[in-house]
């Protein structure tokens, strides 16, 4: 169940990347607010080099970024930089590179669903610190005291996103059950002649192609039939993008990146 609530009715749990001041959406607190059009709406990603993905995004994301698995939970993420706090796909003005895939995790901002631990339900929240939230908005949150069509669409997007998150958890759990994860390395050999030895850039968790190929034929068929095999191959192909990402980092001008729009 997804609801809006009256102010301070819900006790929210957990922290969410990018959301510095999540508040339950309500007409009492936010009835006069909404979203205004700003020049760089995704500038808030400028200092995040890892962005979460759902499993159905592996294909389009693989065209732009390495897709790896992070942390103990093996959360799928798109690698957007080789240094912490630097997104190589956001320029110094805060503009996200237009020809690259934008993860749904980013597109839902400033909306998010949060867990109300007391009522055991999901509630709709907004990041009150989002730079695109304003009075006299282009897209109001409420109209005539009711949720606007824009807000209803945003909530539907968040609900669909949460469904994809659960699908992703199931995919990761299956990879764990099959023991397909292994530690991998991203390495780079300089082309300036300074050394012939490769340099370690990153260590991360990924799916082992050797372990995958060693699975019984019936298990591979099962992975093919449930769609997991195509997502695995998208992940493996995405890893070819490490060299491109490293070169992008080397060519990056060392200037401050805008953090808001």
How would you portray this structure in words?
The protein is of the alpha+beta class. It has one domain. The chain contains eight helices and 14 strands. The N terminus and C terminus are likely disordered.
The SSE order reads EEHEEHEEHEEEEEEHEEHHHH
Q: Helix/strand/pairing class, anyone? A: alpha+beta
State the shape: globular
**Poorly predicted sequence stretches spanning 5 or more consecutive residues:** 1-14, 256-261
Q: What level of helicity do the residues show?
A: 25-40%
Number of strands: 14
- What separation lies between the terminal Cα atoms? 33 Å
Total domain units: 1
Arithmetic mean pLDDT:
88
Number of helices: 8
Strand content: 15-25%
* C-alpha Rg (nearest Å): 21 Å
Defining key terms:
disordered C terminus, four-stranded mixed beta sheet, three-stranded antiparallel beta sheet, disordered N terminus, globular, 23% strand, 29% helix
Task: Draw up the topology in text.
Blueprint: E1 2-3, E2 22-24, H1 27-30, E3 33-35, E4 50-52, H2 58-62, E5 67-70, E6 75-79, H3 104-107, E7 111-116, E8 121-127, E9 133-135, E10 139-140, E11 142-143, E12 146-147, H4 149-177, E13 181-188, E14 199-207, H5 209-213, H6 217-225, H7 228-238, H8 242-250
Parallel strand pairs: 1-8
Antiparallel strand pairs: 2-8, 3-9, 3-10, 4-6, 5-6, 7-8, 11-12, 13-14
Concise synopsis of the structure shown:
The protein is an alpha+beta fold.
């Amino acid at each position: 169940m997804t609801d809006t609530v009256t102010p301070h009715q819900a006790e929210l749990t957990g922290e969410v990347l990018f959301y510095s001041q999540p508040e339950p959406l309500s007409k009492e607190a936010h009835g006069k607010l909404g979203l205004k059009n700003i020049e760089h709406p995704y500038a808030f990603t400028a200092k995040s080099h890892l962005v979460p993905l759902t499993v159905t995004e592996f294909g389009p994301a693989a065209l732009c970024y390495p897709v790896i698995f992070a942390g103990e939970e093996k959360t799928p993420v798109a690698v957007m930089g080789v240094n912490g706090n630097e997104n190589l796909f956001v320029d110094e003005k805060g503009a996200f590179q237009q020809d690259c895939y934008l993860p749904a995790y980013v597109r839902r901002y400033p909306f998010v669903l949060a867990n109300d631990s007391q009522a055991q339900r999901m509630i709709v929240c907004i990041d009150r610190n989002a730079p695109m939230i304003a009075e006299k908005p282009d897209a109001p949150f409420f109209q005539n005291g009711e949720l606007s069509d824009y807000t209803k669409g945003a909530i539907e997007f968040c609900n669909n996103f949460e469904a994809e998150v659960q699908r992703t958890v199931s995919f990761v759990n299956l990879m764990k059950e099959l023991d397909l994860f292994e530690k991998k390395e991203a390495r780079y050999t300089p082309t300036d002649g300074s050394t012939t030895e490769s340099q370690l850039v990153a260590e991360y968790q990924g799916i082992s192609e050797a372990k995958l190929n060693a699975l019984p034929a019936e298990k591979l068929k099962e992975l093919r039939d449930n769609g997991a095999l195509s997502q695995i191959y998208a992940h493996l192909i995405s890893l070819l993008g490490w060299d491109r990402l490293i070169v992008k980092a080397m060519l990056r001008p060392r200037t401050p990146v805008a953090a808001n729009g």
